[in-house]
UniProtKB/TrEMBL annotation:
Keywords annotated in UniProt: Membrane, Transmembrane, Transmembrane helix
Protein name: Glycosyltransferase RgtA/B/C/D-like domain-containing protein
Transmembrane segments annotated in the record for this chain: 12-36, 42-63, 75-95, 169-191, 258-277, 304-322, 334-356, 368-390, 427-449, 461-481, 493-512, 533-556
């Protein structure tokens, strides 16, 4: 093997997760301490990233010759994989969104990022003393921002905003919005590295291309979603875990490079909880796998578990320290998950104690067990596929969600069933975005992999198969997301769609190798031709439907003009302004005014606001500040200002935005009309 290309390919595809994890390890404590600034970030972040590169990337072994399918590894797999990732990032940079008005998660994360980038601490002060004190007619919370006492807490976890903060420091709002496309490209590259390890380096470009073309991968990489960061961390953790387990080490031996890689893999897995609380479910198989390593007396067991514990500790602080109102909002689903996690920990501990002397049971005894396990994989996917024929899932548990689903149903001309969740369609969602051909090939591939694992032929697949299959099944059974698209596809992109692609590519590669090397009367030239035909046909069967789904929707930019409109809005406000939003506009714009414009802001909660506005304006005057009224239309401001008062329209955006569909993938954009009118109230 060409040692340089094999080593560089391995280290380069592990680097994105190592870099993001190293940054989070130092940036998160700075945020908790309230001292996150460009200076402290640079002073600690740059050395942390450099240390991660030396301590973790240095031990990464070269890609194994057996996986590459030949004695030497040429440069072209690395070059093509990197080219696919770079092209993906370039396209997403060109089509990046400007979603800043809070309607859904991207703007929530954008506002979160802007706040910590400029202020370096949480929570967000309400500054009610600069408006009207404790006046009961004012509200300080808004969509995705919880009013708690005299502060405001953002809804989500801090991991993704901490990554996007670097872009804000370097280039303001535009710099912040350009980071997700880059991170999305790193996700494609990391996935290529995982495919190179599990399928073979020569198959990495094809795997990376299939993910890059996927509509959901493009969509989440154009806005400030958390999924790109979570994807790099979790796929990268699988990469590091694979590398850590390429050499057997004894339990209780001295510290080696394999222990370092195992600890790094566990830490990166755990840091996924700093980005998304749902990562807790995805990490449960890792606990079971660490138990298996312990029983097998593998030296990597304790470093892996220790790294996972540290990362999970970060996640606990991120959730219960900086996002507790959000976790309380999720308590109906989170509390059972926490109990399940505790049960898994207890069960694994009991199993380790029980098997410590006996050792691991054989997966190939009795002889029929591997085949039964393989057929079980097919049966589970078949049952999930049959769900729409059996029942219709209902019950959002949230009236606002039901109202929205009913609205979308009316737009699409569907029967109005507001309580329908569409969860029974989840496997078909995956088929929309990666093609039903990919789903079918992946099902066969997963079954074969399970069969081979149990017969000890593919031990390197054990952890990836455990994590990916668990996540696929649990996510498809209960996506737990508002079911309109492309929104609902977010739930699939971190691990589910990559899993389908990975299993399918493995099967095509396995089939091609069987045709090329299997016994038969055909001459070598014909066998090679058959193998090449199978490889090309298999990749094409996956790529064509994936590309067709993506083609109809990925040629627009969402909310274009919002950055310039935000700047104009902020310039339109006096330096000593205290802003009162007098209509329902405050839900989407209150944190924009407070965080991006840097002015005290509140919304009016009263159903009969006129006397409240007069009183609040007077209170603002008494504090020596300029009262400014904001609304979505001038008519909402006119009753509270003297005749002839100038009402300005600094935020005026007429752009495209993401569509919402329920029974088919989106194939176009909807419109977005954003308006903010403001008026400084003159003295009488």
């Amino acid at each position: 093997m060409g040692s340089t290309s094999a080593r560089l390919f391995a280290r380069a595809t592990a680097a994105p997760a190592v870099v993001l994890a190293a940054w989070l390890v130092v940036a998160f404590p700075l945020l908790v301490a309230g001292v996150l600034t460009p200076l402290t970030g640079a002073l600690l972040g740059i050395p942390a990233v450099a240390a991660g590169a030396v301590l973790v990337l240095g031990p990464v072994p070269a890609l194994a010759g057996a996986a590459s399918g030949g004695a030497r590894l040429p440069w072209w797999p690395l070059v093509l994989t990197a080219a696919v990732a770079a092209a993906f990032a370039a396209v997403q940079l060109g089509y990046h969104s400007e979603i800043l008005v809070v309607r859904r998660d991207p703007a929530s994360y954008a506002q979160f990022t802007a706040w910590i980038a400029q202020n370096g601490h949480l929570p967000i002060p309400q500054q009610r003393g600069l408006i009207a004190g404790d006046d009961p007619s004012l509200v300080y919370g808004s969509l995705a921002y919880y009013e708690v006492g005299d502060v405001v807490w953002p809804q989500f976890l801090a991991g993704a905003p901490l990554v996007y903060t670097v872009g804000h420091w370097l280039g303001g709002l535009t710099g912040m919005l350009l980071v997700p496309p880059v991170v999305g490209g790193l996700g494609v590259f990391t996935f290529g590295g995982l495919a190179a390890r599990l399928v073979g380096p020569r198959w990495a470009p094809a795997a990376a291309l299939l993910l890059a073309v996927c509509q959901t991968q493009q969509w989440i990489s154009r806005s400030t979603y958390s999924e790109p960061v979570a994807q790099v961390l979790l796929l990268g953790a699988l990469v590091l875990a694979f590398d850590a387990l390429t050499r057997r080490t004894a339990l209780g031996g001295g510290w080696t490079r394999w222990h370092t890689l195992a600890a790094a893999a566990g830490l990166v897995f755990g840091l996924g909880l700093v980005v998304r609380i749902t990562a807790l479910r995805d990490l449960l198989p890792l606990v079971a796998f660490a138990g298996l390593l312990l029983v097998a007396r593998r030296g990597q067991a304790l470093p892996l578990a220790g790294g996972l514990a540290v990362g999970a500790g970060y996640g606990a602080v991120a959730g219960y320290g900086l996002s507790r109102p959000y976790l309380e909002h999720l308590s109906d689903s989170l509390v059972p998950l926490l109990w399940i996690s505790a049960a898994v920990l207890a069960g694994v501990a009991a199993a380790v104690a029980l098997l410590w002397r006996r050792g691991l049971p054989r997966g190939d005894r009795p002889r029929w067990l591997p085949a039964a396990a393989a057929w079980a994989v097919v049966a589970v996917l078949a049952l999930i596929a049959l769900r729409p024929l059996i029942y219709t899932d209902t019950g959002h548990g949230d009236q606002a969600t039901a109202d929205y689903i009913g609205q979308v149903q009316r737009i699409e001309g569907l029967a109005v069933q507001p309580d329908r969740t569409y969860y029974e369609m989840s496997l078909y969602w995956a088929g929309w975005y990666v093609g039903l051909s990919t789903v079918l090939l992946a099902t066969v591939g997963a079954a074969l992999i399970v069969h081979r694992i149990m017969r000890h032929r593919e031990p390197q697949w054990l952890l990836p198969a455990m994590v990916l299959s668990w996540t696929v099944v649990t996510t498809l059974l209960r996506p737990a997301i508002t079911p309109d698209h492309p929104w609902a596809s977010r739930r699939l992109i971190v691990l589910v769609l990559p899993a389908f692609i990975l299993f399918a590519v493995w099967f095509v590669a396995w089939l091609a190798r069987r045709l090329d090397t299997g016994p038969g009367a055909l001459r070598a030239e014909l066998r090679r031709a058959a193998a090449a035909t199978a490889a090309v046909a298999g990749v094409a069967a996956m790529l064509v439907p994936t590309a067709l789904t993506a083609a109809g929707v990925m040629t627009y930019r969402s909310d274009v003009g919002s950055v310039q409109a935000t700047r104009q809005l902020c310039r339109a406000l006096p330096d000593d302004a205290s802003v009162i939003v007098v209509d329902g506009l405050y839900g989407g714009y209150l944190q924009l005014l407070r965080g991006m414009c840097g002015v005290p802001a509140a919304g009016l909660a009263s159903s009969e606001p006129e006397p409240d506005v007069e009183r609040i304006v007077g209170e603002i005057r008494r504090r020596g500040r300029t009262p400014v009224l904001a609304a979505s239309e001038p008519r909402h401001i006119l009753p509270y200002v003297p005749p002839g008062t100038g009402i300005r329209h600094p935020f005026d955006v007429d752009a495209e935005r993401d569509a919402s569909t329920l029974m088919e993938p989106p194939a176009g954009a909807w419109g977005f009309d954003g308006d903010v009118w403001v008026a400084a109230v003159p003295r009488q």
